[in-house]
Amino acid sequence: MADDPRRRILGVDRLVELPWYRALAEQHGGAWVRDQIREVLSALRSGAEPIPDSEDGYESLLRARIALGVAPSLVPVINATGVVLHTNLGRAPLANAARSAMAAAAGYSNLEFDLDTGKRGSRYDHCVELLCELTGAEGALVVNNCAAAVALALAAFAGGRSVLVSHGELVEIGGGFRIPEVVEASGARLVAVGTTNRTRVEDYRRALDGESVGAILKVHRSNFEVRGFTEDADLAALVELGRKRQVGVIHDLGSGLLLAPDMLGLPSEPTPQDSVRAGAELVAFSGDKLLGGPQAGVLVGTEEAIRRARRHPLCRAVRTDKVTLAGLEATLTLYRDPARAVAEVPALRMLSESAAAVESRARELVGRLSDAPGASALRVAEGESLVGGGTFPGVRLKSWTVSWTPRGTPDRILANLRKGDPPVVARVNEGSVVVDVRTVGQEQVEDLAGAIRRALSADGA
Ligand SMILES: *Cc1c(COP(=O)(O)O)cnc(C)c1O
Questions:
Q1: Residues lining ligand 1, judged by CB closer than 6 Å?
Q2: pTM
């Protein structure tokens, strides 16, 4: 046992006295750094790492471990997938105006304080005027996300009673948002009417007899298409039916596009304004889909319906915070001038950018790489981007890509790109690495070029 190499491992007591150790402990917190050095020593004892010959070797090991520990878990990435509203990459990137407003609101704010009277105010008053102005509704309420907005609307209108939903709208939206489960969670009883492909107003009318119905829920089928022998009850017709029986209609719209879709070159899509005009009591939509703001759920509707939702205890459980409200307000403000919204809300700008402009960014990217080893493999080609976020499932946006067929496997290149700083998320198509430039901002081109340069060089080695 005398020559057990583990006897050479230095002890904690000796290491903690060294100047570099003290500096690290000062910087990162003594107790935490002591835990890290213990982990380093235990890795040495287990033989997972070779035992350093000098104190400097211990310093390197500790610094490496600390670097891992202090690296944030949530980091910015470059989205080179071409999916504009990429749910896994945080959906909508925010406008600069929203980013500044969020940073400013991060300190104290008048979140629940009325600056005119000096008395208590309500967080639920922020954004209301803007939302009413932009959608034509009488009232508005902002909560945590659209799923929460729908659950709250159902709880407020139909808790303990039935809610009528078309069989064709018992959908899953993604991320586990399933209409039957949301109805159940809100304490309402689901009554499915009609059939999967055809549901008429008459089906709702029949279900209204004999049931204690609290609401009719209409769900926008945002993430899939139905074709062929289909029929749907029109929202306005449902509102008319509901009015006769004193049953409110809730419209779960999902995306919340506040502009005419043709401004973005997109096909027809119902907007919150349409639903308000059709007379829905409550309309629910997301803040971070086509609205292009922070994660939030918005309810707009009649004054009475909004009051009911605000008073429901669930409202407190799904409230938003000051930073979100500030970002949403700044985003909504841009919509007062629709052209400005298209220019400054990144999701709208990316969706509406011409293929020619995307192409010139793709060529700029390749131009920056002209001197990189392996650059001759790079191709600039047409491609197709997606709207994403569970919206416009049938739409393909003409885009431009930079792609290459690596020597190694494309998956290894992708893994390499993900490990960079900032990480780049690209895709693979038929053995090639594909970088779609539509979702890459002009300010990211330089970083992206650096990442591709490193990936090419690693592939050549
Ligand atoms: C996306 C979507 C939701 C869920 O929205 P979140 O903001 O993700 O909670 C609900 N309903 C519809 C129709 C949707 O498209």
A1: 145-147, 150, 173, 177, 219-220, 222, 252, 254-255, 286, 297, 390
A2: 0.93
